[in-house]
Amino acid sequence: MGFLNKVKSKLGIGGVKVELQVPGQVSKESEQVEGKVVLTTKSEQEIVEVEIKLVEEFTTGRGDDKSKESFDLGMVKFSDTYSIKPGEVKEIPFVLPFKLLKSNADSLAEKGGALGALGKVSKFTSNEKSKYMVEANVDVKAAILDPSDEKDIKLM
User: Fold this and answer.
1) Model-level pTM greater than 0.85?
2) Which parts of the chain are beta strand (E)?
């Protein structure tokens, strides 16, 4: 039975469960996301690090010409090592500062007037879209596959 428990622990089965709690939308001007990471477990585990980041998935084009890029807009790490026991709930509140990136079309669109109209047309024709998400990754000492969670968020 001990061998099976070790294998399950390495694969993260019955190990640490991560739940990310963030608001559904955040103001772009605030330049920060507040939330918390909630950790629970079914067996005693050692947490090495918790990393939270805001990611932008930027897509352009249509059909076969569609391309996707990911950008990290902000990140915060907690490197305190501690143990979590079965039935225990560990909450880690965080404030995640971020800095938005702007495409050339976005920069033009903000100028207003003729240049703004040109920027809006350029953004439309290249089908530029951004999707934002907050990701939490937890480094568990005994696990090969570390637990994580992600939540979509709208920046208004």
Assistant:
1) no
2) 16-21, 25-26, 32-41, 45-60, 67-78, 82-84, 90-97, 129-140, 148-155
